[in-house]
Amino acid sequence: MIKIAIIEDEQAHTELLSSYLRTWGTAQGQAVLIQTFLSAESFLFVWEETNDFDILFVDIQMGKMNGVEMAEKVRECDREIAIVFTTGIADYMGCGYEVEALHYLLKPISKEKVGQCMDKVMQRSCREAFALVHGREQTVKIAVGHISYVEARGHGCVMETCARDGSGGQVEIAESISEMERQLGSHGFIRCHRSYLCRIESICRIGKTEITLDSGSVIPVSRRMYAEVNRAFIAHFRQDYHNHIQTMKAHLAMGKLEELETYLNELDHDLTTVDTVIKTGNVMVDAILNSKISVAASKGIAVEAKAVVPEKLDTSLSEVDVCLIVGNLMDNAIEACMKIRQEGQRFIRVYHRYSERTALYLYDKRNRRESEKGGRRLSVR
């Protein structure tokens, strides 16, 4: 959860900014808690007792104490908290240098500018963030980006870490799961179970009852929290997808094709080994299906595929949504096949027909029975 304070003496601006921040939070799958203050003095009275905010949106022009003076008092105790100044006068936009203001918003503020500001805050947060925890005999600083999940155990927790070089393991810590949620909630972590907290970016796959992480670990997801976790996962994927597309468009615009190829290979080191097994007629569906078929082949799974998809889909679903569905279905089928011990017995059949109501069927050899309810076929993974 991201805790935000808005210090603004004009109610109309406060309500508008609050609305934009909540819209951003919903789009990003981030829980946002906003507290508003009409003066610098009222904020400092609360902050000096709790010091429990991640971001401050501060109006420069206020009554007795202006926003810059207030920020100077905050910086005397906290050098890390993100400070964003709002002002209606462009000449004031240089006033925050000494208090290390992260960003400025010129009134009237726009939803797009607030979103860009929050993206900048989150990028800085993820790049610099560390969790301070207490082990059995020492206090340890652990990079937030290396934490996969936290599990409540006894009076403390167990934290799994996984660095880019593959190193990591489990660390026993004294902090409670609630304390770790307070530390990590603003850094892309979400409660998936009463005893588990996981990093959204580390999620590989979400099932109805469990989550598979990139590290290979499997943790539970409760029925009550499933929908929220799934929304956050999809929102993160969309933002990640958008960022990659923008980077690739920049390379193309500058004619840097070699750099673009290098970037694509870094995104997926298996990209150059993907064979064109099936051509459906839709480029994006071809890409995801052939990629997943190559993954299946690397695991000793035979795949029989037959599909025809229009170049442009006449459906309420976007091509990105369709690829998400197809990719998730293939991941589920691959997971099911891997439960068959004999490698030669692993088999997936993919069949897709397109009409006014598009349908995609995947059959894996382990699940031979088909279930129906109300005339609809049901997944039996």
Name of the level-1 CATH class of the largest domain: Alpha Beta
- Average pLDDT level: 77
How far is the N terminus from the C terminus? Answer: 33 Å
Proportion of beta-strand residues:
25-35%
Biggest sheet details = 5 strands, parallel
Strand order of the largest sheet: 2-1-3-4-5
The string of secondary-structure elements, in order, is EHEHEHEEHEEEEEHEEEEEHHHEHEEEE
Count every beta strand, where a strand is a DSSP E run of 2 or more residues.
Answer: 20
Summed up, the helix count is 9
The CATH topology of the largest domain corresponds to Rossmann fold
CATH architecture annotation name of the largest domain: 3-Layer(aba) Sandwich
Q: Flag low-confidence runs.
A: 269-276, 367-373
Question: What does this entry show, briefly?
Answer:
With 381 residues, the protein is of the alpha/beta class. It has 9 helices and 20 strands.
Fill in the keyword field for this structure.
OB fold (Dihydrolipoamide Acetyltransferase, E2P), Rossmann fold, 37% helix, 381 residues, alpha/beta, five-stranded antiparallel β-sheet, Heat Shock Protein 90, 9 helices, 3 domains, single chain
